[in-house]
Amino acid sequence: MTYLFDKLTGFFARLFAALPALPGRGAGGVTSTTEPAQTSARFQRLSDVNRRDTAIRAHHHFENSIIHAPELPIESPVYAIGDVHGRADLLHALIDVIVDDSRSSPNRPHLVFLGDYIDRGFQSREVLSTLIELGRDDTFETVFLKGNHEQAMLRFLQDHKIGPDWANFGGRETLISYGISPPKSVNAVDEWQEIQKELVQTIPDQHVQFLEKLVVSHKIGPYGFVHAGVKPGIPYEQQTDEDRMWIRDEFLNAKDKEDLFIVHGHSPVNAPYSDHRRVNVDTGAYFTGRLTAVKIEGDKMSFLTNQFQAREAS
What is residue 26's three-state secondary structure? Predict the structure, then answer.
């Protein structure tokens, strides 16, 4: 059974990797700051799977990797969690790993979720409920960022005409998680009006409020946390919401360091990646079964998954 699962996982990973990417359209004393989302952000249709990452293999890390990083100005550890995409099972497992790992710190840990909680996987509703409960738990200092998929769902709640676009990159699975059947023909725009009404009536108010309150960026000392990345050469504070939630190759392939070290998801990689300017912890949870977090503590970064955590070599 394990062999068959591994073969299927490899098949789907290769299938996703073979698909072409669609280009995107448009665009002091405080140590921790967040920035709310701009309400004028436009919905865009964009593939969620990165097809081309020029990072060399040596910069990909596995669970036992502990590497040097910019030093945090706070004593608490920071855990940044990659794209969940409707995998509540993996989220629960990773939180258990983080809880166990954080016992070694006397300070209240920070959890920064990097967006894309919904779509692709079939447990989106449960993921949102879990995150809402985590936000109420004073065990952690929590920050929840908005991803492009949350932006799409919010737009669908207002405009049924984007239903086909949303469905084509994961919205169907989210609807199913709320007990709603998508149209048989996803491209039949008129049929999406009733689906939208059903979702508006079905989705809990606290889920909508959670989505509406998501922020697009967070900063702790020399670290900038965003869903997708930043436009190269533009100061962090001047970045647009569209770039923070949607940018891909222009950011991934840039060479020069930004004014902050960027922590992001959005572009799936086989293993967490870091270089002199960024760290990517989106390991394609919905099709790999591996949800990843980066732990930043002092001047070190390490990586945790739903199954493993990094440990110092003895």
Answer: coil
